[in-house]
Recover the amino acids of this structure.
């Protein structure tokens, strides 16, 4: 019995030590190493130069600031689009619910890069959206390689990640609570603000985290849809690693990003408690 | 459901599906452009069938996805079982946090940290020698374990304990109760976790780019570099094939379920 239990626990622990703790420790180790010519391109030392550079140089600070802004705006856009969507699915007739939910998940299985490819075709100067805009008399606009295209890509990719946990929460709310509030004379908007919204908050936070965190480190979408000005932190890290072959600086960017991601929820909790 | 909500729902589904519809239509375009329609043709499907680099990358990706999902299912089952059944034990909080960490780690950090691990391991113990399919598989599995654990744990939490207790009352040793009672009951969760891991692996370009080496380009890596050079209807044809396979799989699944019910 004890031996079996020890084995069941030992395997995940060993796995996590090797594939989670060790890699993160090594990233920290390389962040304080010196860049060098050679394979691999670093020399193990103890220097804070890389971390100091990454924390103070405007290039990295702006990238981090821009990433947080893009992630926050995208999360908000996903929430504004996804909340009514999740609510509508939760309120749909029971026999449709499973199909509607499956339809939210289905695009996920068509390949992320494929969908980004479709957006490139749609957003191009001679693409369908511009043809439509010209036909409407608005005229053609540069869309691809702009911030707008990047936001569309992020919202499109991560919307399902917000809708699913939110739906899970909304579908479990007791409809009697709303009936009671309505019977006592609360108008629908008040029922929403006082009953539905507060009770759905755990789902809102879970969904927002699932959008915000990957969006902060996003590399592919700004690279393919955003213009050269969209230097998000994921792109900067990628550039340091693949183009500049500067592993210690790339590792330092990773450490900085990790520290910020750990700090954001802590700061949010403190701000909300006040 | 109010009319406004229903209208919004329709608009959201249109937003989700318009690009996919566009992909499918233009995969049959005769011209090189993905914007101007110049007649229907299958030429991009023919080009796809002769694109050896793309076929090799697809086979490599399928292999990596299958192996990494299986590895993740093995480790994730043990972790999910421990969290659902062992009650309080030392280090439980740490184990839970560590298992959830890959879910909230940005891909670039996962990719970079896994690559550095493989580089250091190669220097210290000589394994894995170089980067390629093996390192990508391990990196994908390390992310997927978190998803399998989550699904398995959700399935086991608070269910089936009476069945396990009945087995033990009838003198089944714990491993038999696990093998003959718990494991069969876990199969739907295992299948869901495996499928999720498989999909994540097939879809990943960032972690694969960091941890792969020369000569081992996965399908997303090939599509990504092709996209940077310019979008062609050939990629749309590939996407249409994937959509067809997924749709066929889902139809088969729902038929099987209806038959079983």
């Amino acid at each position: 019995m004890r031996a079996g239990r020890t084995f069941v626990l030992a395997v995940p622990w060993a796995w996590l030590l090797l594939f989670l703790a060790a890699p993160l420790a090594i990233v920290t180790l390389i962040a304080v190493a010196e860049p060098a010519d050679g394979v691999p391109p670093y020399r193990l030392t103890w220097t804070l130069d890389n971390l100091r550079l990454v924390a103070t140089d405007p290039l990295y600070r702006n990238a981090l600031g821009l990433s947080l802004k893009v992630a926050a705006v995208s999360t908000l856009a996903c929430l504004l689009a996804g909340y009514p969507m999740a609510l509508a699915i939760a309120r749909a007739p029971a026999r449709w619910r499973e199909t509607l939910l499956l339809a939210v998940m289905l695009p996920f299985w068509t390949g992320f890069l494929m969908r980004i490819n479709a957006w490139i075709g749609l957003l191009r100067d001679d693409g369908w959206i511009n043809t439509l805009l010209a036909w409407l008399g608005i005229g053609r606009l540069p869309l691809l390689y702009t911030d707008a295209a990047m936001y569309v890509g992020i919202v499109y990719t991560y919307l399902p990640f917000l809708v699913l946990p939110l739906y899970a929460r909304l579908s479990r709310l007791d409809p009697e609570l709303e009936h009671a509030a309505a019977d006592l004379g609360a108008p629908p908007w008040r029922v929403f603000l006082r009953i539905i919204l507060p009770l759905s908050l755990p789902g809102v936070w879970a969904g927002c985290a699932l959008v915000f965190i990957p969006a902060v480190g996003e590399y592919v979408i700004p690279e393919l849809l955003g213009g050269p000005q969209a230097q998000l932190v994921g792109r900067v890290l990628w550039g340091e690693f693949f183009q500049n072959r500067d592993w210690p600086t790339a590792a330092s960017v990773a450490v900085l990003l990790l520290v910020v991601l750990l700090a954001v929820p802590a700061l949010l909790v403190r701000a909300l408690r006040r | 459901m109010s009319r406004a909500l229903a209208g919004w729902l329709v608009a959201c589904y249109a937003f989700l599906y318009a690009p996919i519809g566009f992909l499918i239509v233009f995969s049959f375009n005769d011209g090189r452009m993905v914007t101007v329609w110049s007649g229907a043709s299958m030429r991009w499907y023919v080009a796809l069938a002769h694109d050896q680099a793309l076929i090799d990358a697809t086979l490599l990706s399928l292999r990596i996805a299958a192996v990494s999902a299986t590895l993740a299912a093995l480790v994730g089952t043990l972790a999910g079982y421990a969290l659902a059944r062992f009650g309080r034990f030392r280090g439980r909080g740490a184990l839970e946090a560590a298992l959830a960490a890959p879910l909230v780690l940005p891909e670039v950090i996962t990719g970079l940290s896994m690559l550095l691990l493989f580089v250091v391991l190669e220097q210290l113990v000589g394994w894995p020698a170089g980067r390629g399919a093996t390192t990508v598989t391990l990196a994908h599995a390390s992310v997927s374990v978190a998803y399998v654990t989550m699904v398995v744990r959700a399935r086991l939490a608070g269910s089936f304990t009476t069945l396990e207790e009945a087995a033990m009352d009838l003198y089944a040793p714990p491993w038999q109760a696990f093998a003959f009672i718990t494991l069969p009951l876990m199969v739907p969760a295992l299948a869901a976790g495996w499928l999720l891991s498989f999909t994540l692996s097939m879809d990943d370009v960032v972690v694969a780019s960091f941890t792969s080496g020369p000569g081992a380009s996965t399908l997303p890596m090939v599509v990504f570099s092709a996209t940077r050079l310019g979008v062609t209807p050939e990629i749309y044809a590939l996407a249409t094939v994937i959509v067809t396979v997924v749709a066929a799989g889902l139809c088969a699944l729902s038929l099987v379920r209806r038959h079983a019910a």
About this structure: The two ends of chain B are 30 Å apart (CA to CA). Chain B has eleven helices and no strands.
